[in-house]
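U., I forgot to send this yesterday:
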Amino acid sequence: MSFYFLLVKLTMNFKNITLSLIFLSINLQITTNQQIAQSQTPPPVNTFLCPAQLNSSIPAIINNPLFRRVRWGILIQDISSQQTLYSQDAEKFFIPASNTKLLTTAAALKELGSQFRFRTSIYQEQDGAVRIVGRGDPSLTEAKLKLLAQQLKQKGITAIKNLILDDSYIQGDIVNPTWQWEDVQSDYGAPVSSFILNENTFSFHIAPQNIGQPPTITGKDNDEIQQWDIINQAITVPRNQETSIEINRDLSGKTLRIRGQIAANSQPYVATLPVIEPNQYFLRRFLTILASEQITVDKTSISSSENYQNEIAFIESPPLSELLKETNVNSNNLYAESLLKALAIKKTKQQNLNSADVGLEVLKNSLNQLGITPDSYLLADGSGLSRRNLISPEALVKTLQAIAKTPEASIYRVSLPISGKNGTLKQRFRNTSAEGIVQAKTGTLRGAVSLSGYVNPPQYEPLVFSIIVNQSDQPSPVLRTAIDEIVILLTQLKKC
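Result:
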């Protein structure tokens, strides 16, 4: 497993990071910042630019020798007049990374409405069986599932002869077949199905023991740990030594191999992995919750039915307006994929139809009505995790412009991160002229970085922009710094 994957997979407390890793991070940041500083001088914070100056200021950034092998796609327009202030390969295809979510959330808002909620229902069958129907709620937690169990108890149900899980609402692959293996075994690539609980992930701790001994593996729920065959080849090393842990999952999904070392005085790691079988995971957790409410279950089964009549309990997700915030502000892949599959609700349910495929078709029709032609993008998923996604900066800008003219414009816009304030932009643009006035969606894959959204220059009209970098051998921080410099230029525009 790569070091990159390790950093993504392990949610570390700051106390867990060793001095060597801190120095590595610091040295990387210093090196990349020095590289850019030596080759170009950022504009002073209080300088104002005429729009025509962008034709020389932006090339000064993107033609840096560091980027001689890089593809840039850029489009900057006035949001109302659609006047183009700068364009470079705006009509060409690029791998957009999580900028894909801009299209998915725009279509979801248009088709489902801001008040749409996912509903998880329990029905009483004529033969006394209890059927729980999952509809792909990405926000469902064990706390909310407990509320569902409590509703059953309030109805006087203390014994269930047959608990049926109905997973027919979402059809087809639960993991996108175009995702890479390192993504599939990461928490950000969790499966999306009719039943989603705790974002279909589980966590466990890796804690040091006596020097020379393997660390202990414990979980919040040991039932989940017991579902895996764990090969623990890690070792506890003396205090203050470097901690380096790798976690691999085999292709069958049943074996975890843990390698590396952990310092004797370090705090436990919290590792988060995707579940393999969402139905079984949901069932195990729900049975535990039912037992805590003194509700017994004789047997369980999984089957589908179209005859839902006697609903006796239900829970709902927050409204779509809130789900969009989690999707875009925090760039949540599972939420985006769930929303894509929810778009399939607009089509009549037909057997053997892949919900994601139907969702993509609905998305295409929805965007077409907004004026975004299907030949300007090509999607394989709703989150941007697939490298088969291709979107032009022009398509992203047109989407942002079109949604800004709808009654849902404010709902859509508030779902985007704010520069220097929250989400994936919280640490960017601080102490610059762009802080607090940029709302944009980030995107990052290896070799691809993107940023698209809105900016409100104090001395100019509101703008919409899309900047995508592809085929780069430079570290992502270097690419982000260059993109941010372009955006800072936009905040300094004035009418001339």
